Structure formats: C-alpha cells, structure tokens
Amino acid sequence: MKVTIIGSGYVGLVTAVCFADLGHEVICIEKDDNKLNKLKNGIVPIYEPGLDDLLDKNRKENRIKFSNSIEEGVNFSNIIYLCVGTPQGEDGKADLSQVEEASRQIALYMKDYKLIVEKSTVPVNTHQWVKKTIKRYIKNKEIEFDVASNPEFLREGSALYDFMNPDRIVIGVESKKAENLLKELYKYFIDKNYKFLITTPAAAELIKHASNSFLAMKISYINMIAELCEKVGADINEVADGIGSDKRIGRAFLNAGIGYGGSCFPKDVKAFIKIAEEHGIDFGLLKETEKINKQRRLKFIEKIEEVLWISKDKNIAIWGLAFKPNTDDIREAPSIDVVKELYRLKANLFLYDPKAMENFKLLFPEKDNIHYKDDPYSAVEEADALLILTEWDEFININLEKIKAKMRLPIIIDGRNIYDKKKLLELGFEYYCIGR
Ligand SMILES: NC(=O)c1ccc[n+]([C@@H]2O[C@H](COP(=O)([O-])OP(=O)(O)OC[C@H]3O[C@@H](n4cnc5c(N)ncnc54)[C@H](O)[C@@H]3O)[C@@H](O)[C@H]2O)c1
C-alpha cells in the first residue's frame, strides 16, 4: 500500500521506516529544512538503535522518500498519518496547533477519498476537530474522507522492536472503509495474531493518554515506596520484586529512581489532568503522580547536598543526560534540573552521555564550570563525586576499580540504582542510591 506520513520526528520516522520495511511505499513530509535535508541524504537526525540501517535499506529499495510538500504527500496516497508534535501548551493542555495546521493543509489539496489517521498523542475527541477542520477547508465538499485514531505505544530506545512487536495495535474508526484500509495496512501483524483492537476514535485517543498516565503513576508509586524504604531500612529492589511478582501488578515500571522525564509522560499526564478538568473531573490521582515526580528531582538534589555539604567548587561528574538509555532525547530529562541547580550552586560539572551531549549543549553550552567529556573515565578525573542520572549499559558494565582510582573522593550518588550496593561498599565507595 501507499502511505503518507506527516511529521518525521521520533514517531513519524520510525513508523515510516517500519511500514516501508513491511513492503509499503512511504512518503514522509517534514517541514523542518534541516531535518529534511539530512533525511534526504540518508542521515537519521535522531539516535534510535537500528534506525539508520533500516532507513538505508529501504531507501536503497526505493520504498521510502522525503519531501516538504504536503501537496505531494496528499496526492501520493489515500492513507495520511499525522505524526506531528503535540507538545505541552502554556497551561498544561496539549498544544494542538501542529495537528490543526496539518489538517488544514491536507484539506486544501484533497481531490479524492482520504483516510486521515492520528498517530500523534491527542486529547480525546480531537478527531472531531480534525474532521471539522477538513470539512471547513476542503474545496470540494463532495469529497469523502474518514478520520481515525491509531495511537503509538513505542518506547524511544527500543522503538523499532516495539513497532514490530507490539503488545497491541489499536485502531479507532468510524467506518468499515477506514477499518478495512487499516487492516490491510497492518495485515502482517493480523496474520501473525498480534492483538488488534478495533474501537471508536474517542476510545483509541483515551487509551493512549490513559496508558501513559498509568505507567507514570506506577513510577511515582514505587518512588514513594522507595522513600519509605529509606526510612525503615528496607531495600526497594527486594520490595519491587515482591510486588512485581504478582501477575496482576507486573514488575515493569517498578524501578525506583529520580522519576520519569521525556517527551511523553510529563506532557501526557498534564494533558490528561486538563482533559478530565474540562469535563468536570478532578483527577487528583494524577495530580499527585505529577507532584511526587517533581519532588524526586528536588530530593535528589537534597541528597547531593546532604552528602557533599557544600557543592560550590566541588568537581562533580555527571553520567547520563538523556531522559532514558538508548536515546539522545533530553526533553524533560531530570538531568536538566540537576545541572541547572548544581550550576547555580557553583559546582564544577563534568558531563558525559553516550549519545545526548550534542542536544544537551544546546541548553547548556560548554562554559566556565560546565565541561563535556568524551568518555566516562575522563569525566570522573579528580571528581569529588559522581552522579548517575541515566541507566546506560556503558555505566552498568564499567570498570569500577578504574573509576575509583581516578576520583578524588570515591563517592557515587546513583539516581537509577544501577549498582549492587554491597559490591560498591566492598570496593570502598561511599554509595548513595534510591530506596536502599
Ligand atoms: N517520542 C515518543 O516516544 C512518542 C511515543 C508515542 C507517541 N508519541 C507522540 O507522537 C507525536 C510525535 O512525537 P515525536 O516525538 O515524534 O515529535 P517530534 O517533535 O520529534 O516530531 C514531530 C515532527 O513533525 C514535524 N511537523 C510538524 N508539523 C508539520 C507539518 N505541518 N508538516 C510537516 N512536518 C511537520 C516537525 O517538524 C517534527 O519534525 C506526539 O504527539 C507524541 O506525543 C511520541
């Protein structure tokens, strides 16, 4: 089939490349010239494991191309995916201006039937607005179209795997025609018996916000248990294993740490609270989830101060700037708040991340007391303390003896609980972590 993808960011590009690899013919529309030029030259503008090779393969086999012309995209196929950004607006509501703009642009060029599919995460009933916008701006009012919702559940860092091995595919449709088109598009997964849920568009839109909010809630829940563990002398990992062994609960998303960040959870939880509010519902549970999450960063900074007493003039190494491993995405990453505060406190910061440093430099350019290092070892040279903010494998598998030899003081404050506490103490580190 032919597919048009509007917006070639994390979700758009992964969706496009995976559809192409399944044998579909895909055009990606991207309005950011810088991104577009890279993509046209086969360069992936983000870090996502395996994406560059898969793009390369599908470009060579002529199944994927890039353009900035919505007109070309609309003429190319009758399935048009909206993968544009839905960032947080000023008041916490989702900013839907990119969805509105793309819908308007699509309408202007529609000459025959189109199925417009929301893959962006949008508030419930956004499909109604997309429909209304297209009806308003379409020139020939006789042309038929459908709007469907097909939310994306991929995780950055394992996006290709997640797209190709989904727990479920959800399509929210209002017509048999839309349903059949999407079934054909997803035939590979249906044939392989992946769970394929057909709902209304409103339910599909809700499923996405409700899923992300639930996962965020799980993280905040375990982080509160971790706080209690610290007070009573229990180990959060043992507690999480015990809780998570219950099939009704599950072990995933029960890792205590400095809280969630990223481009999705913070904004989606906020947006979901607002959506509920607009319908007269006070979603206190999620407000508390958000509050607990914000407190994690403050508590981590408090922990640093408790350990170091004064941060001023201390050499502090920071490993991990990305909001999670295997991505270069730093949107809403805890590292931003930690670096901001330690910079304010006049510490000397030595930062290292395997993939996210270029993005981080855009927020915190290299200057007097912010230094970027090429590897984890040079970051800890003469350090008074090492902070761990992202659980990259590179840090988990590091030679800790070598690290200790390079540091001025063997102090590790681990916001992600990546090490065995007993082993660290045996090696002679002062080791502070979360909930243990
Ligand atoms: N990043 C994730 O892990 C993830 C996972 C699931 C769902 N989502 C949702 O998917 C959506 C996209 O997220 P993302 O992380 O890919 O965002 P992103 O900002 O990386 O990408 C969006 C892209 O759309 C482009 N764009 C915007 N308007 C356009 C237009 N009119 N024409 C052409 N291009 C246009 C932008 O230039 C940008 O490159 C969001 O709603 C997000 O919540 C994201």
Which features characterize this protein?
alpha/beta; 14 strands; 46% helix; 19 helices; binds nicotinamide-adenine-dinucleotide; N-(1-d-carboxylethyl)-l-norvaline Dehydrogenase, domain 2; single chain; 3 domains; Rossmann fold; 6-stranded parallel beta sheet; 436 residues
Please describe what this structure looks like:
By secondary structure, the chain is α/β, with parallel strands linked by helices. It folds into three domains: 2-199, Rossmann fold, CATH 3.40.50.720; 209-290, N-(1-d-carboxylethyl)-l-norvaline Dehydrogenase, domain 2, CATH 1.10.1040; 296-432, NAD(P)-binding Rossmann-like Domain (Rossmann fold, 3-Layer(aba) Sandwich), CATH 3.40.50. 46% of the residues lie in helices and 14% in strands. It has 19 helices and 14 strands. Strands 3-2-1-4-5-6 form a six-stranded parallel sheet, with helices on both faces. The protein has a six-stranded parallel sheet with strand order 11-10-9-12-13-14. A two-stranded parallel sheet has the order 7-8. Helix 14 (334-344) links the parallel strand 9 and strand 10. Helix 4 crosses helix 5, helix 10 (201-232) packs parallel to helix 13 and helix 13 crosses helix 14. It binds nicotinamide-adenine-dinucleotide. Nicotinamide-adenine-dinucleotide is lined by residues 6-12, 29-32, 35, 83-86, 98, 101-102, 105, 120-121, 152, 154, 156, 263-264. Nicotinamide-adenine-dinucleotide binds at residues 6-12, 29-32, 35, 83-86, 98, 101-102, 105, 120-121, 152, 154, 156, 263-264.
